[in-house]
Amino acid sequence: TNEYYINNEKCRLKDLTNLLLDIGLAKESFNIISQGKVEEIISNKPSERRVIFEEAAGVLKYRKRKEDALHKLDKTHVNMQRVSDIIGELENQIEPLKQQALKASIYNETKQKLEEIEVSLIAGTITDLNHTYKENKQKIKDLNEEVISYTTNNLKSEAKIEEYRLKLTKVNESINKTQNELLELTSKNEKINSQKNILLERKKYDFKDSKVHDNLISLKEDKLNLEKQINLLDKDIQTLNEELNSVNNSLSNSNQDIDKIKQNKQLLETNLTKLLRKQTSLNSMIDNLQVSIDNNSLLSQSVKKVLNNPKLQGIKNVIGNVIEVEEKYATAISTSLGYASNYIITDDEKSAKEAINYLKENNYGRATFFPLNVIKPKNIDINIDRSLYIDVASNLIKYDKIYDNVIKNQLGNVLVTNDIDEAIVLSKKIANRYKIVTLSGDLIHVSGSLTGGSKVKTKNIINEKYELEHLLKELDSVVKSIKELENKINEIDEELFKSEQKVFEINKKQINIKENINTKLETKDLKTEQLDKINSELSGMNNLLENTIDKEEEKLLNEYYKTLEDKDKTLKELNKLRNEQSTISENITDLEYILKKDTSLLNSKNNELKNLEIQVNRMDVKLDNLLNTLSENYNMTYEKAISLYKLDMPIKEASSEVNRLKKTLKDLGIVNIGAKEEYERIKTRYDFLTNQRQDLIKAEDMLLEIINQMDEIMKKEFSKTFEVIKENFKDTFKELFKGGFASLKLTEPDNLLETGIEIIASPPGKKLSSISLLSGGEKTLTAISLLFAILKSKNVAFCILDEVEAALDEVNVDSFGKYLKKLDDKTQFIIITHKKKTMEYVNVLYGITMQESGVSKLVSVKLEDIRR
């Protein structure tokens, strides 16, 4: 529980011991000398006696430190052995683990690469497949509508055909019936005509004037015949008027259809004119934009001068011209780059230097250059939750890999988010460490400052390229629309031509009917006039012929011509029915042709629909499989996959690469996934222990070096101090003994670190070979001589002498006291003594007295004051 302090600062016992060693205080030092120690100096072995000389030489602290160093060296050897044993065990584990870790590393790298390619391939396939799937679904919908339309038309056609067939059946029945009626009328007419002829022949002989009779009969027949013809003409005119009305209605409907077609065509032509104007405008804008991009119109004069100077070598292009960016990322990338999009890329510093000198010489202004061999890429060197941002800006563009360092220098540490709210959250997460840009162009700088607001349309290389791409897409759309409109107009022209041709045919038919009606009317007028004339003749002959024709004859004539009239009507009716039969047959043929054509189209559409449905079902299954693969193999949704991975190679090449990587994984066999971490752990420990062993070796070498250095110091200081003490001992001995001879001798001069010290002393009048032959007083005085010699060789702050002179006689005590006086200017002596002679030489005397039993009292006397 002891506590040690130096200058009121808490310390270790070791610190205190070192401090005392540095000032010459230790249990082995001679600062405190007792009577017994004086005897030890003489009686000790030479090897034990050297401790006093070491303390006097100041090497005792070095010996202590050497002993500590040797102790540490022993501990170092033990630790080194332990470390070597552990390293040996680890070496047996590390090589197999290294192979497993390498295998696991290859597995992880291959799997990661497989994931990047396969996920991007799956995501791209899902995107394309889904697009095709939606298109096919729409096609199925359209085809279903077409199938329904064709089916409905077919049903209508079949119903119409059945209707026409029913009509045809009825017409055929009417024709058969009319033909029978016609046969009956013909037979009846022939029979009546026979009866009439017989009657007429018989009546010839009954009339007085047969000639008049014949004329009357003839007029009567003509009259009946004309009446029959007039009736038939009226019937024909009525039929023709009905047909004319029908034709007029058809003509009116056809003209209305033509008007509608023309209106539709006019509307399409108006739209076509607008699209053609838009096409011309787009072509002009594209040409101007292309010229602007080709001529770098938006670039500063200095940049254009450099790019357009063919004499300058190593000039690549400006940053904005070497990248391609999708429409949705254009604003973010443009904002991120800013004016840096106009920085010039060069092969090296030499090319940039030549361009700068060219600008200076011609006073063309300034430009910024990015040498490919100097510019270093920047990246995101911390782990950030991918759900907080879309991607790093450099991953959202396409460019030639030779510009990788330049692009990543500008965009490799820029994060892109959807909006400013996401950007603020992300900025706080990463402590404003990187620049963040939103899709709408808002910026959060590294300092934490924000830039944003309403979008102002600015012109730069990236925007121009995006605008050109947008205009080209728009032009393609316009051209496609123009083609579709032209096809529709061509179809309408064809339809219009057919309708106009139909109107022409109707007009032609209308004219023919009108001419036919006029002809019939003229014929009727002529027949009517003839009938009137016959009626007039018959009226004039009435009185003459009153009794010439009897009722039987008149009845036969009326019946005969009535039969002829019915026969002609029936014949006309038969012709009409046959025409109707022919028309219905033609309509049936036309409808059957249309039905056959529509049925063929319907079958084709049904086959197409069936194939599309099969494809859609397969796509549906494939989409499910792909989504399941993403979910089960990669625990990822399609939305996450499409946002994280972009396919940067052709699909065929990607598929081959996926198969190759899967084969590589299969060939690897069983893989210890944790081997890499285990290897790293063992390797870290192995490296640590190896370094520890190296440190221990270095420490050992350092300790040995320190021991060698201390040995050299101890040799040097011991030898130097020994010689000084040796000379001082000679003088001190002679002075205290008033003559005689004394010296010191090394027992092993070649081994200064372990050599003992022999004392050679011969008092006056004696010749001794060993100090053991000295008397007790001589030994004590010899030892005191040696002590005084040591004190003369080294400055000692204090020295406590405890009855060291007890064995001396009065004369030697007096010599002792006198010699102390010679040294008291260098060392403070504290003497414990019973010798009164010694007391005479002290400055202050302290004594203990006991005036009362059991009560001690300290008494001091300053002898200097008494001497005065």
Q: Give the neighbour order of strands across the main sheet.
A: 8-10-11-12-13
Please describe the biggest sheet, giving its number of strands, its sense, and whether it closes into a barrel: 5 strands, mixed
Q: How much strand content do the residues show? A: 5-15%
Low-pLDDT sequence parts: 205-210, 543-549
Shape: rod-shaped
The whole-angstrom Rg is: 69 Å
Tell me the number of strands: 19
Please bin the fraction of helical residues: 55-70%
User: Whole-Å distance between the termini?
Assistant: 51 Å
Structural class: alpha/beta
Mean pLDDT: 80
Total of helices? 19
Structure described in brief:
Helix content is 70%, strand content 9%.
Describe what this molecule looks like in 3D.
- With 868 residues, this protein is α/β, with parallel strands linked by helices.
- It contains 19 helices and 19 strands.
- Helix 10 (420-429) links the parallel strand 10 and strand 11 (435-438).
- Mean pLDDT is 80; it is low at 205-210 and 543-549.
Structure keywords:
868 residues; alpha/beta; five-stranded mixed sheet; 70% helix
Per-chain topology:
Elements: E1 4-6, E2 9-11, H1 13-22, E3 32-34, H2 35-43, H3 46-57, H4 60-204, H5 210-294, H6 301-307, E4 315-318, E5 323-325, H7 327-337, E6 344-346, H8 349-362, E7 369-371, E8 391-392, E9 397-399, H9 404-411, E10 414-417, H10 420-429, E11 435-438, E12 443-444, E13 450-451, H11 461-540, H12 551-634, H13 638-644, H14 651-668, H15 675-737, E14 741-746, E15 757-762, H16 776-793, E16 798-802, H17 810-823, E17 828-832, H18 836-839, E18 844-852, E19 855-862, H19 863-867
Parallel strand pairs: 3-16, 6-7, 10-11, 16-17
Antiparallel strand pairs: 1-2, 4-6, 5-9, 8-10, 11-12, 12-13, 14-15, 18-19
Helix pairs in contact: 2-16, 3-15, 4-12, 4-13, 4-14, 4-15, 5-11, 5-12, 7-11, 15-16, 16-17
